[in-house]
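Anyone opening a protein record will find just a pair of labelled lines. With that in mind, the following record should read easily:
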Amino acid sequence: MAQYRSFETERLLLKPTSEEDAAFMLKLLNTPSWIRYIGDRNVHTVEEAVAYIRDKVTAQLQRLGYANYTVIRKSDGEKLGVCGLYDREGLEGIDIGFAFLPEYEKQGYGFEAAQEIKRAGIEEFGISQMKAITTKDNVPSQKLLQKLGLRYSKMVQLSDDAEELMLFEFNLDDPAVHANQ
């Protein structure tokens, strides 16, 4: 497998999610908040988690050089959640997203990881526009996106049967972005 970039913050290591993360991903994909806010991926065994990683994460990583990153706490090696840049079906452009195990929420890890992934997207991968989607009732996610500098744009549906989602956008060329720096 090719060598892909990992990233580091003061407290965190962000490494490309790989098949060795399958047990962790199985746990994360089946948390109540993942199912409520992101959706049930119907991954119920470690083998299905390996297939999910191979089909969704590794395929995009090989195609674009970036994808989903497992967020690891440096102090003890604990896997806390995921954060990444996604080429999401039904959404034009690159989507920044994040999810954490419930016991690691509200500790600043989401912002720390997402801020580094946003920086990497801009500086390492040349992404000047980012989008994010969230459900109307996921207020913590909305607040984190706003803190990252994304602004609410409009309501969207990714498919005919999907619920309406809030679309947030960031554009490096937007004069408002530079006014806030």
Summary: The first strand starts at residue 7 and ends at 8. The chain has one domain: 7-179.
